[in-house]
């Protein structure tokens, strides 16, 4: 890690073009620069967009690692300078679309290069790979989604020191894979989307050190036993057997088969050693019975989203719940009853997603029995935030209050639920909450008011709510607030948003009306007849400490669209007495969508 | 304030900076020099010489322990290296 | 805060507080340089102002990171008539030995 003073120096060196000019001729210092400092300085220059090809020259004696990922300007001229970097160990030009096969010529025969990332450089073809194979020191090569053909892949077999090879998305055939079997040092092989079949998969046995393998989107149905394998991706494959064969069972830690199809899941998975398995992604797979789950006691991360998991099968998850940290059940049939079965069996769970499930408020109280939860996603569910109690007084209680007992709750997603302002009141006492996402056309300034007291709130997203200028003005968030996303809050005006930005400069505000704020620090230049009126109105309001009527209802119920538009340039008062009206949100939804 | 609570850092050109030991020991390198038993004779007297660090840079480093200061772009490379060497 | 007290090739980083008096600073320096406070003279670099013992750093507008020049007199035999000279904006004393000699000859 760099010290604070080193960081300040790098910051000062990369202030602007002039500061770069002040040090770029200090040749002796540049040559003495320790590589990690040179790397960090270069990284900062790239980040600040101050790097140009001839400036690279000053780093040729010091830099060992350079990451130019996604820099569109990187072309043959850049590569010409990079070729002279004597000590370069790692070069990343992934997604640099101007890097062609011939642009790679200058790096031919580099003597220190161990790692080269050319991912998605579409213009790198078999001719380019001929330059690369002269770099015999290469240990890691990424050429996924480049212009390589089967022939180019075959050429790679001469890079005998390779331990990592990413050929994702390339037309690797069984024959080409077979030609790579001389790469006995390989530990990591990615051939997703290739033409490899079961015949080619048999060759994988030759890679005795293989610990990572990605066969997603291939025709491989039978994977032979690979005794060193720790991580296997077979997403979107049809799997009939995994790791069957002689030799020791591989210490598999991570298994990803999202979207995979199984003819017989029990048979396909029967050869897997499960005692080390900590990560399983079976999302969107065809698994029906999940009877293999109880043996996977070491699982920490389990993704069953989009699967047939439901209340009837959830007991299989409950019985291995002791170690689970992350559980994704979104888009499943799991209802509140299912969450009830899980409650009490997930003592270490930190992340839970139940989005797009048929759960309701009953599930919320079960969730509160998972004491270490940090992240909870309840979006797109039937959660309302309150439960009716027949005959009791009051006849409802606020269900979200149950989450108050979760002392670690940092992130909560309640987008597209049925919660309304009053239901959010318990949130105001959530001491650890940092991230909150809301999206509902029935939320108003009242919700914003409740959130003022959250001491650690960092990211707040309230989409499509009916927030008024005045509500925003009165919102007094914690100083920790870094980002506030107000997309779709159509009642807000540019003036109001800009004055909020000025008041809370540490907060980045997102909204349709906010464009390029830093270049326009003095606020809107567009005519704003509203300014005076809204100021006057604000003066008349008691600032802060505004009392909110318990019968506060959606402001829109009172007005038609024209009136609301007129109000946009004044300010809605929280004190306007409101009647409890029938819900006209359908109508209002139409209004807001027609406006956008 | 006692004399033993201060250390003397000496630049390449022989300029001396007398600074609180606690502040100086924020630097891992200086800490090691002053605490490793019997490694350097000068550490017995609370003195450390830096033949590689110029006066300007050493003063900036001593400064940096106490307060914020602007960094002139022409000094950034040298200061960065000194800060790196001193682990400060 | 702290101030930098400079004398020839040495800089002392002295931790202090704006409410401390100049004498307090001199007492700190006494420990470091083995010179009695009476022999020390502190001059604020920048303004050239000689700092008075009884005044606080704040009185003299000595702020964080201020640079103060330290001069010493030998033997403590200077006469008061010289103090006008010392009060003049000179950062580093003109070779003291001259005055020292002059001082001695006047006394003898």
UniProtKB/TrEMBL annotation, chain A:
This is F-box protein. It comes from Quercus suber. SUPFAM superfamilies: L domain-like. Coiled coil: none annotated. It holds the Pfam family LRR_6. The lineage of its organism: Eukaryota, Viridiplantae, Streptophyta, Embryophyta, Tracheophyta.
TrEMBL record, chain B:
One of its GO terms (cellular component) is nucleus. Keywords: Nucleus. Residues 5-61 form the SKP1 component POZ domain. It comes from the Eukaryota. Its main location: nucleus. The keyword Zinc does not apply. Pfam families: Skp1_POZ. One of its GO terms (biological process) is jasmonic acid mediated signaling pathway. The keyword Nucleus applies. Pathway: Protein modification; protein ubiquitination. It is found in: Nucleus. Belongs to the SKP1 family. This is Elongin-C. It comes from Quercus suber. The gene is Eloc.
From TrEMBL, chain C:
Residues 1-77 form the Ubiquitin-like domain. PROSITE patterns: UBIQUITIN_2. This is Ubiquitin-like protein.
């Amino acid at each position: 890690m760099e010290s604070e003073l080193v960081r300040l120096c790098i910051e000062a060196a990369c202030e602007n073009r002039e500061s770069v000019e002040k040090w770029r001729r200090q040749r002796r210092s540049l040559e003495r620069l320790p590589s990690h400092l040179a790397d960090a300085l270069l990284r900062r220059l790239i980040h600040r967009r101050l790097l140009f090809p001839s400036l690279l020259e000053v780093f040729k004696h010091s830099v060992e690692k350079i990451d130019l990922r996604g820099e569109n300007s990187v072309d043959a001229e850049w590569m010409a300078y990079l070729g002279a970097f004597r000590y370069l160990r790692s070069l990343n030009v992934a997604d640099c679309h101007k890097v062609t096969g011939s642009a790679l010529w200058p790096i031919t025969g580099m003597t220190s290069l161990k790692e080269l990332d050319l991912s998605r450089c579409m213009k790198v073809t078999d001719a380019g790979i001929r330059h690369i194979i002269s770099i015999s020191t290469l240990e890691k090569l990424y050429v996924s989604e480049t212009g390589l053909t089967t022939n180019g892949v075959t050429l790679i077999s001469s890079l005998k020191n390779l331990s990592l090879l990413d050929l994702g998305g390339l037309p690797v055939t069984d024959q080409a894979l077979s030609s790579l079997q001389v790469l006995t040092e390989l530990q990591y092989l990615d051939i997703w989307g290739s033409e490899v079949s079961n015949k080619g998969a048999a060759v994988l046995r030759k890679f005795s050190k293989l610990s990572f393998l990605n066969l997603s989107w291939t025709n491989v149905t039978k994977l032979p036993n690979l005794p060193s394998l720790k991580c296997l991706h077979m997403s979107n494959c049809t799997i009939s057997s995994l790791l069957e064969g002689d030799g020791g069972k591989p210490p598999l830690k991570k298994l990803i088969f999202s979207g995979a199809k199984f003819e017989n899941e029990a048979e396909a998975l029967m050869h897997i050693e499960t005692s080390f398995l900590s990560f399983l992604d079976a999302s969107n797979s065809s698994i029906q019975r999940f009877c293999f789950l109880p043996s996977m006691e070491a699982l920490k991360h389990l993704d069953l989203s989009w699967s047939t998991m439901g209340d009837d099968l959830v007991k299989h998850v409950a019985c291995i719940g002791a170690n689970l940290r992350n559980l994704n059940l979104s888009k499943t049939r799991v209802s509140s009853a299912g969450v009830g079965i899980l409650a009490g069996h997930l003592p270490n769970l930190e992340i839970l997603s139940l989005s797009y499930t048929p759960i309701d408020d009953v599930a919320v109280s079960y969730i509160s029995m998972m004491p270490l939860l940090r992240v909870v996603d309840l979006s797109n569910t039937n959660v309302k935030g309150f439960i009716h109690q027949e005959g009791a007084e009051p006849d409802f209680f606020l269900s979200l209050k149950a989450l108050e007992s979760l002392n670690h709750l940092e992130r909560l997603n309640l987008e597209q639920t049925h919660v309304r302002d009053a239901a959010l009141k318990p949130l105001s006492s959530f001491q650890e909450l940092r991230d909150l996402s809301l999206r509902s056309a029935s939320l108003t300034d009242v919700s914003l008011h409740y959130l003022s007291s959250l001491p650690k709130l960092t990211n707040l997203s309230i989409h499509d709510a009916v927030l008024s200028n005045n509500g925003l003005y009165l919102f007094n968030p914690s100083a920790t607030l870094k980002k506030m996303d107000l997309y779709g809050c159509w009642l807000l005006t540019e003036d109001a948003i800009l004055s909020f930005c000025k008041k809370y400069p540490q907060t980045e505000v997102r909204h349709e009306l906010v464009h390029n704020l830093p270049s326009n620090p003095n606020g809107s230049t567009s005519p704003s007849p509203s300014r005076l009126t809204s100021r006057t109105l604000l003066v008349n309001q008691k600032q802060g400490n505004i009392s909110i009527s318990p019968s506060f209802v959606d402001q829109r119920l009172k007005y038609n669209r024209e009136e609301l538009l007129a109000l946009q340039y004044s300010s809605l008062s929280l004190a306007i007495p409101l009647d409890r009206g029938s819900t006209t949100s359908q109508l209002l939804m139409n209004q807001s969508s027609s406006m956008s | 304030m006692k004399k033993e609570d201060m250390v003397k850092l000496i630049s390449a050109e022989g300029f001396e900076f007398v600074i609180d030991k606690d502040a100086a020991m924020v630097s891992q390198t200086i800490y090691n020099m002053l605490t490793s038993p019997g490694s350097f004779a000068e550490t017995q007297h609370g003195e450390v010489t830096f033949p590689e660090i110029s006066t300007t840079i050493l003063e900036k480093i001593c400064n940096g322990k106490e307060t914020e200061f602007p960094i002139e772009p022409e000094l950034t490379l040298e200061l960065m290296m000194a800060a790196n060497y001193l682990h400060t | 805060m702290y101030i930098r007290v400079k004398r020839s090739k040495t800089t002392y980083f002295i931790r202090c507080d704006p409410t401390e008096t100049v004498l307090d600073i001199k007492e700190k320096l006494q420990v470091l340089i083995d010179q009695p406070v009476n022999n020390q003279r502190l001059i604020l670099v920048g303004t050239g102002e000689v700092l008075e013992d009884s005044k606080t750093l704040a009185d003299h507008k000595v702020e964080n990171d201020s640079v103060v020049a330290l001069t010493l007199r030998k033997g403590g035999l200077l006469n008061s008539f010289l103090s006008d000279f010392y009060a003049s904006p000179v950062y580093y004393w003109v070779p003291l030995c001259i005055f020292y000699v002059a001082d001695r000859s006047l006394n003898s």
